[in-house]
Amino acid sequence: MIQPLFSIITVTYNAEQWLERTILSVLSQSYPHIEYILIDGASKDGTLEIANRYASGITCLLSEPDKGLYDAMNKGLHKATGDYVWFLNAGDTLPTADTIYRMVKRLDKRGIYPDVLYGETNLVDADGRSLGARRLKAPKKLTWKSFRMGMLVCHQSFVVKRELAPDYDLNYRLVADYDWCIQCLKRSNTIHHTHMILSNFLEAGMSTVNRKASLKERYEIMCRYYGKLPVIVLHGWFAVRFYFAKWVKGRV
Description:
alpha/beta; Spore Coat Polysaccharide Biosynthesis Protein SpsA, Chain A; eight-stranded mixed β-sheet; 8 helices; Glyco_trans_2-like; EC 2.4.1.-; Nucleotide-diphossugar_trans; glycosyltransferase; PGL/p-HBAD biosynthesis glycosyltransferase
């Protein structure tokens, strides 16, 4: 089997605090078939200086004004030529230098490269310190309907064949990645749980900082795919479960 080319895409804006560790985690990969694409939104800090320091390992480096995060991610998609696309934004990292190598080695034994690869996620703070595993675990079986329960797989641990990846919907400012993952899953025939930690995710993204607005956008997306009444009922159950868990914890 011919091993696949992974297009790893990083989008940045004024990310000098976090960018270097992301770049190093990609460039240190032992797996040889990687193209690294870095899309910058015309940063005003030292982001470009850091990127240029590693320019020899970056396949495509573009810096220009954009219309926001998802516009920049669309630019990355359009520049990608790999078999798979994988978004790893500033501050996010691949857990080990052999993460991709080990994943592909397991796939080689299976004799098939699925449409979607997904796995677990660790959370890190602004200094790169581990905050432990993400609360939502990746389900053993994943379909587009699974996402009615929320973003069950972190975007940075979700890898999809480029030919199946649509543009991000710019009508959503904060959680277009949620909509994008659902679309990818609807287009996919083979979806594979790697049972690996695929990313360290910086818990300081737009949807984390703007939690209330992001939940509103996610609700709109859920209603679009799963129907308004089922989503209302489901959110009622979420609320009951949350407050019951809080009550039990308070009594312990």
